[in-house]
Structures are given as C-alpha cells and as structure tokens.
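Notebook entry, structure prediction.
Reason for the run: the old model in the group folder had no record of what sequence produced it. Starting over properly, with the input documented here first.
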Amino acid sequence: MTTERRQTPRLRSLLGAQARYNQQRSTLDCVVRNISEGGALIVVPETVLLPPDFELAIAQRQRCYQAHMRWRSGTRIGVSFEAEEASQPGGSSDADVAMRLRMAERDNARMKSRIEQLTEAG
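New structure, fully documented this time:
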C-alpha cells in the first residue's frame, strides 16, 4: 500500500492546458489529469523538453499557476504550484506582475551563468 505524501488531495480531471516558458515566447499544449491547490499531474508529448519552472495556464478554470516540475516519467509530469502565484491569465494583478518579475530574474541569472560558462570554455 502506498502512502499519500500530498498535503491536499488531487481531483481527477481532463483539462486542456498550456505550459508557457521562455518569458511566454514558448508554449506547449498539455493535458491536466489530476489537480489540487498544491499541484497537478500533466501529460505532454514525450519528445518535448520542458524547463523546471514554467507557467501553467488552464483556460477552463481561467487560472495561471507558477509551476515547478517535481518529477517526470515519460509523458507524465508532476508539478507543484506556488500558492500565492495563482492568477487569471493575461491579468495584470500585483501577484501576476511579481511572478513574471521573479521568472525574468531567474531566466536572467541562468543566462548570465551560461554566458560565463561559454566564455570560459572558448
């Protein structure tokens, strides 16, 4: 018998969603198979690489979540949500702006690190 480790129970679902990353310049259609306030199980094409942090937009719920990949097994990905990050897609709420700023800062730090690696190697 397996032990449930989630803080909140997940509800089965079949929701169309979109993973957005690279400052929303890249998108990936996916399916949410179960969801809770704290996370979800999404299904994506196996050949697609997805960054560890991305925005998950679920149009049917009119919500966007800042998602963090916890695990991946083939086409199935378990993600956790940052609780205060839930917002309406396309909205300009303070939480949405703060989330986008943090994502941009993370991307900026990653790019700077990569530039340093490339300049040292070359």
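Summary: The domain at 11-121 is CATH 2.40.10 (Thrombin, subunit H).
The old model has been moved to the deprecated folder.
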